[in-house]
Amino acid sequence: MSFRDRPIRQKLMAILLLTSGGVLVLTCAAFLAYEVVTFRQTTLKNLSTLGQVIAANTTASLAFRNEGDAREILSALRAEPHIVAAGLYDKDGRLFARYPSDLPVAALPASPDRDGYRFEHADLVGFAPVAQAGSARLGTLYIRSDLTAVYGTLRLAGAIAALVMGASLLVAYLLSATLQGTISRPILALAQIAKGVSERQDYSVRASKVASDELGVLTDALNQMLSRIEGQDRALRRVIAELERSNKELEQFAYVASHDLQEPLRMVSSYTQLLERRYGDKLDDKGRKFINFAVDGAVRMQRLINDLLEFSRVGTRGKPLQPVDVTRVLGAVRANLTMAMADADALVTHEDLPTVVGDETQLVQLFQNLIGNAIKFRGTERPHVHVSAQATAAEWVFAVRDNGIGIAPEYFERIFVIFQRLHARDQYPGTGIGLAVCRRIVDRHGGRIWVESVPGGGSTFYFALPKQNGEQAL
Amino acid sequence: MSDAVRGQPVEILLVEDNAGDVELAREGLRECKISNNLHVVGDGVEASAFLNRRGPYASQPRPDLIILDLNLPKRDGRELLREIKEDSDLRRIPVVILTTSAAEEDIVRSYSLHANCYVTKPLGIEQFLAVVRSIESFWFSIVKLPPR
Question: Chain B contact for A279, CB < 8 A?
Answer without folding.
Answer: no
